[in-house]
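FAQ

Q: What does a record look like?
A: Structure on top, sequence underneath. For example:
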């Protein structure tokens, strides 16, 4: 009778150094998800990533494809091509884009909050001038007065010219203030 070969712990045939099939599939799905984020980036963000011509062509083809199944298959192809590409710069570009979108949304919400407060109370005007001293106070008061007048005439319709003008004035002041903060954060020529 033949005996079964006995394996020592180091001789185990299943003790390979390569990743399991499950881990390979998980990595493939992660790359495919990253590919979905990649195709949503604008061309101006994709260009500095130095992607291969094949991958760039696949991204363009994905954008041209209209059918659901065609997009799914093209995304799988993009995921396959990304296995041979360094994914870290792509992750950084996607993260930067998402951060920028979140920051823009936050700035818009902040501007809307200021607009509502400025229309609602005179105390908000004092707080605004303390926070944004570079703002032309006379122009701001005039626009706030007009926006209040528009709001009192038609309370449910708050999209009058002065209402929009106040929003633009707030956004501009926030942009100028943010630009000044960035200049202060950067080291000078001292």
């Amino acid at each position: 009778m033949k005996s079964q070969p006995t394996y020592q712990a180091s001789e185990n045939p299943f003790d390979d150094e390569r990743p399991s099939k499950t881990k390979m599939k998980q990595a493939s799905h992660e790359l495919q998800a990253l590919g979905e984020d990649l195709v949503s980036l604008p061309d101006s963000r994709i260009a500095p990533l130095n992607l291969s011509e094949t991958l760039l062509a696949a991204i363009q083809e994905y954008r041209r494809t209209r059918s659901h199944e065609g997009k799914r298959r093209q995304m799988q192809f993009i995921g396959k091509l990304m296995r041979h590409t360094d994914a870290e710069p792509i992750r950084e570009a996607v993260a930067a884009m998402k951060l920028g979108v979140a920051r823009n949304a936050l700035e818009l919400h902040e501007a809307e909050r200021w607009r509502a407060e400025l229309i609602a109370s005179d105390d908000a005007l004092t707080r605004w001038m303390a926070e944004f001293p570079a703002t032309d106070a006379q122009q701001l008061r005039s626009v706030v007065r007009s926006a209040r007048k528009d709001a009192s005439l038609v309370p449910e319709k708050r999209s009058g010219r002065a209402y929009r003008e106040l929003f633009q004035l707030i956004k501009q002041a926030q942009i100028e203030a943010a630009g000044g903060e960035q200049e202060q954060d950067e080291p000078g020529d001292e």
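Q: Is there anything notable about this one?
A: The CA atoms of residues 119 and 145 lie 8 Å apart.
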